[in-house]
Amino acid sequence: MSTSAQSPVPSAQSLTRFVHPVAFLVFMWLVRAFDWVLPGTFNTYGIRSWDVTSAFGIVLSPVLHSGWPHLVANSVPFLVLGLLVAAEGARRYWLVTGIIALVGGIGTWVVNWPGTLTVGASGLVFGYFGYLLVRAFVVKTLSHRILYAVIAIVVAVLYGGSMLTGVLPVRVGISWQGHLFGAIGGGLAAWLLRPRTPVPAKPANTFGF
């Protein structure tokens, strides 16, 4: 008889989930490089508030940036928070990212001043933070609640100041709308993707005499 024990070393398949936020960030850098080299600018494809022809900007805006400093400023928090979200799996990472982009993009399109152009991945950054924060309250097991609470506290210590001020209209040229609705989208994603309690099957009707 032979027995097998689970290896403490993570398998290559389990580690591939972390490739997704890294690849997404690399794609952003490639887009910025092409935008820098080619004539014109890709930023015209961002979110232009109240302009129905810019609806595609909801999808494209997160990968566009106004310049290299803008991209550099977003890269580290995006990667750190993105890896934390991706730890739950590639499928969940893209679901969370999609919900954040949709809610954040629509909110920005509606609330921002008409004609305002918005680009950048900071909405995703705030969305990942909102997701991790709300996730601590919707997971079922105590151990997972503690884990996500610790993660939320650590992230709050590292980025708390910028996260709090980022959702307020205190800095000219910064889309607080994108930050605010991105965070709302992240919280909504955590709630929509929360663990569900299985509904017990109803017993079959029986008749006795």
List the SSEs and their pairings:
Blueprint: H1 12-15, H2 19-37, E1 47-48, H3 57-60, H4 68-86, H5 90-111, E2 117-118, H6 122-138, H7 142-166, H8 176-192
Antiparallel strand pairs: 1-2
Main location: membrane
Pfam family, one: Rhomboid
Transmembrane segments: 70-86, 93-111, 117-134, 146-168, 174-193
In the predicted model, the low-confidence regions spanning at least 5 consecutive residues are 1-9
Total domain count: 1
What order do the SSEs take from the amino end to the carboxyl end, as H and E? HHEHHHEHHH
How far is the first residue's CA from the last residue's CA? 52 Å
Spell out the CATH superfamily: Rhomboid-like
Transmembrane segments: 70-86, 93-111, 117-134, 146-168, 174-193
Protein name: Rhomboid family intramembrane serine protease
Membrane topology: Multi-pass membrane protein
GO molecular function: peptidase activity
What does this structure look like?
It comes from Brevibacterium samyangense. The chain crosses the membrane at residues 70-86, 93-111, 117-134, 146-168, 174-193. It is found in: Membrane. The chain is 61% helix and 2% strand. The chain has a two-stranded antiparallel ribbon with strand order 1-2. It is mainly alpha-helical. It has one domain: Up-down Bundle (Rhomboid-like fold), CATH 1.20.1540.10.
